[in-house]
Amino acid sequence: MTNIIGTNGNDTLLGTNSADTINGDSNDSTIPVSQDNDILTGGGGKDKFIYKINSYNFSNNTDTITDFGGVGKGVTPSAAIIAEVDVIQFQDYYLTAQNLLLTQNSSNLEITFEDVPSAKVILQNFKLENLDNLPATSSRPAIGNILFNGQTSITDSFDVFDANSTQTYLFNKNTVTFLNDLNNNITGLDNSNDVVNGQRGNDKIDGKSGNDLLRGGTGNDTLNGGTGNDTLNGDEGEDSLNGGKGNDVLDGGTDNDLLWGGEGNDVLDGGTGNDLLWGGAGNDLLNGGRENDTLLGGTGNDRLNVGSSNLDFLGGDHLLSGDDGNDTLSASGYANRGDSDNYSSGNNTLNGGAGDDYLIINFSKGNNLLNGGDGNDTFSKNYSGNDTINGGKGDDLLSYTSDGSY
């Protein structure tokens, strides 16, 4: 560990490849963050902390800033606050406002990014509501706490609700918003690509029209994408996700979730828990998890899957129903030629419905029921248990092997 202390001037302080303690002292300091888990103190003045993945391996860091100066609540910070506002500059393609995740953990604020799971900055004794970027006014320039990749000056890239705010609308179009820990009821903006991040409350978030990204956070949340190609992440809690019209991506996260794709070619992932996934109209992809899930394809040529594409899947009694369309239904385990450790163990039911469907049961210890329904269906059964197959109407084909060969 190296202890680095600045002077009373405007210093640039560069750490080593070890876990450093860096103190900028009392003036404006620039601190590029090094490769390990550093403890950073800006000291007085306007300090800048620079994180760059390619140069400093930020993807393996947990760095702590002990005295970060926030913009504070409201839109008219005092001169004293402005004089002490610190900036974190993130320099990498993935370090954008859209990927930003802010989590209040007791008295500390944790900063992470969705596509960089092990990267973390901890602001000690800092509240979420004090972090913000504010646009310029007639009396002052723009001020803020975060510069994202490609930015050289502060822009109003994100908004933060005050801890006690009960407002029901977003501040700006095409921006990133962080809610508070209350049970929020938020309506997005039409013709706007909104990014809305829930926190610990049971939130209701309606994205309206536009290509929206909605994250529920902790709590039992209701997310409605509206018109547009939306991404909805339930995260923790028993969530209800409705993609609406458009080609949407829905992820239930943990616990027992309800996912409805709506109109369009959607991708639904239940995550953990006993989930209900309904594709709706369109050619959809539905992925179940490790518990007892129900997958309903709806109209269109859908792919319903629990099994080998998700190695967490080993058990659970799943119901897969293709409904209308030429659907592919699969409830299979995973094995390396004779290794039964990853065989699925649940008793699954696969209903093809109308259309020429493809029903697959491979590497399964369970007693499964496969119903082809109307149409010319194909059944694939390899290395599985005592299964029942009902072809239904149409000219059906059964492909069967007992030793796992093809």
Q: Ends: how far apart?
A: 58 Å
State the fourth-level CATH superfamily of one domain: Serralysin-like metalloprotease, C-terminal
Which CATH class of one domain applies here? Mainly Beta
**How much helix, percentage-wise, in residues?**
under 10%
Strand residue percentage: 25-35%
How many β strands by DSSP? 37
> Radius of gyration, rounded?
26 Å
The major sheet is characterized as: 13 strands, parallel
Uncertain segments are: 9-16
CATH architecture of one domain: 2 Solenoid
Count of discrete alpha- or pi-helical segments spanning 4 or more residues = 2
Indicate the CATH topology of one domain.
Alkaline Protease, subunit P, domain 1
Anisotropy-based shape: elongated
Can you describe this structure?
By secondary structure, the protein is mostly beta strands. It has a domain at 3-147: Alkaline Protease, subunit P, domain 1 (2 Solenoid), CATH 2.150.10. It contains 2 helices and 37 strands. It has helices spanning 53-56, 79-82, and strands at 3-5, 21-23, 30-32, 39-41, 48-52, 62-65, 87-91, 100-105, 108-113, 116-123, 133-134, 143-144, 146-147, 158-160, 176-178, 185-187, 195-197, 204-206, 213-215, 222-224, 231-233, 240-242, 249-251, 258-260, 267-269, 276-278, 285-287, 294-296, 303-306, 319-321, 328-331, 349-351, 358-362, 369-371, 378-382, 388-390, 397-401. A 13-stranded parallel β-sheet has the order 14-15-17-19-21-23-25-27-29-31-33-35-37, with no helix packed on it. An 11-stranded parallel β-sheet has the order 16-18-20-22-24-26-28-30-32-34-36, with no helix packed on it. Strand 11 and strand 12 form a beta hairpin. The protein starts with a strand and ends in a 5-residue tail after the last strand. Residues 9-16 have low confidence and may be disordered.
